[in-house]
């Protein structure tokens, strides 16, 4: 059965504010969304884009978690933070403008370090979305979420590329399905009228099963059948962050450390020169248009997961700047 334990009645003001969503998704889906508590880890431009969309959708609460301070690089894409707040904590600096988007959503900031949070910390949320984390951090947070039945999302934007990963464990949702129905139209007062076939929309319960984040790392090449170039870049950038603690800066373009991580993946997957252009391209900082695209996908999936309406993406989305297209890969099964 779908979980209704946290649903609540919408006030008249809420019903008016979210009228379009109610028409699209129905009352029960909106109530589930309205009850959801979301944790966003990492308030770069990508995180800001996600926050904007889910706050406007009308979740119950959004918590920003980030121990880092605002830098000049954030001015490329982090629209919540005024330029005079450079040097301040990212989560706290993002709070005022984010809260102004929708006063009916409780937005809060936590300037603590993710590594200092116990596993139980994640259990107070319905959805956890982790950005700008190392592989070790992502594995640990994902495990903690699985143990406490919390839906887990991860993603990043590096320059012009990005990815979204989703682990909803076992997820039930409603899908609108068109079906044909035979109806009888009365004619001229006759008891038996003319028969007609109409298309009606029926909501059906469905279930999807997901795998944890660690299952999609370093998958066999045979699992990657098409347009998988961004997957390799994702591995390179995550391996770099795991080893060096952060992403390369624009001033470190073409640095030996990044070349070494790229060479290891190229050799492992026998890529030759297949991804050379991407490795030598713009993988630095976060560009606002890419944050908008990839962040929009992430926010849409969070909203779908919270409302339990429509089929979720399962399980990896990557954005390729060369083709300007997104690709869905189902890995780790």
Structure description:
The protein starts with 11 loop residues before the first helix and ends with a strand. It has 2 domains: 18-169 and 210-332, NAD(P)-binding Rossmann-like Domain (Rossmann fold, 3-Layer(aba) Sandwich); 172-209, no CATH class. Mean pLDDT is 89; it is low at 1-8. α2 crosses α3 (27-34) and α7 (229-244) crosses α8. The chain is built from 10 helices and 10 strands. The strands form 2 sheets. The chain has an 8-stranded mixed β-sheet with strand order 3-2-1-4-5-6-9-10, sandwiched between helices. A two-stranded antiparallel ribbon has the order 7-8. The protein has 333 residues and is α/β, with parallel strands linked by helices. The chain has helices at 12-17, 19-25, 27-34, 45-57, 90-101, 135-147, 229-244, 256-268, 276-279, 288-307; strands at residues 37-41, 61-65, 106-110, 127-131, 151-158, 161-167, 170-185, 194-209, 316-320, 325-329. It is found in: Nucleus. This is SUMO-activating enzyme subunit 1. Heterodimer of SAE1 and UBA2/SAE2. The heterodimer corresponds to the two domains that are encoded on a single polypeptide chain in ubiquitin-activating enzyme E1. Interacts with UBE2I. It holds the Pfam family ThiF. Residues 18-323 form the THIF-type NAD/FAD binding fold domain.
Brief write-up:
The chain is 34% helix and 23% strand. By secondary structure, the chain is an alpha/beta fold. Strands 3-2-1-4-5-6-9-10 form an 8-stranded mixed beta sheet, sandwiched between helices.
């Amino acid at each position: 059965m779908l979980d209704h334990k946290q649903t609540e009645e919408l006030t008249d003001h809420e019903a008016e504010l979210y009228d379009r969503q109610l028409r699209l998704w129905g009352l029960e889906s909106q109530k589930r969304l309205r009850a959801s508590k979301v944790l966003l880890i990492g308030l770069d431009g990508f995180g800001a884009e996600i926050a904007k969309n889910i706050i406007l959708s009308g979740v119950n609460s959004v918590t920003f978690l980030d121990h880092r301070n605002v830098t000049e690089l954030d001015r490329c894409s982090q629209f919540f933070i005024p330029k005079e707040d450079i040097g301040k904590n990212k989560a706290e600096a993002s709070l005022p403008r984010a809260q102004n988007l929708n006063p009916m959503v409780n937005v809060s900031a936590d300037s603590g370090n993710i590594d200092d949070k116990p596993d139980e910390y994640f259990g107070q949320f319905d959805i956890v979305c982790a950005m700008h984390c190392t592989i070790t951090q992502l594995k640990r947070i994902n495990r903690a979420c699985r143990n406490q039945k919390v839906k887990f999302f991860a993603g990043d934007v590096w320059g012009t590329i990005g990815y979204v990963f989703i682990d909803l464990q076992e997820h039930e949702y409603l899908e609108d399905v068109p079906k044909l129905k035979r109806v009888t139209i009365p004619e001229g007062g006759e008891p038996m009228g003319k028969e007609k076939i109409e298309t009606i929309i029926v909501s059906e319960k469905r279930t999807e099963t997901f795998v944890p984040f660690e299952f999609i790392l370093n998958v066999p090449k045979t699992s990657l059948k098409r347009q998988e170039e961004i997957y390799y870049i994702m591995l390179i950038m995550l391996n770099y962050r795991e080893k060096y603690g952060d992403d390369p800066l624009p001033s470190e373009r073409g640095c030996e450390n990044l070349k070494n991580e790229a060479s290891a993946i190229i050799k492992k997957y026998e890529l030759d020169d297949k991804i050379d252009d991407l490795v030598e391209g713009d993988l630095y900082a976060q560009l606002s248009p890419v944050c908008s695209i990839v962040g929009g996908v992430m926010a849409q999936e969070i909203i779908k997961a919270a409302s339990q309406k429509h089929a979720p993406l399962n399980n990896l989305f990557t954005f390729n700047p060369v083709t300007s297209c997104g690709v869905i890969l189902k890995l780790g099964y």
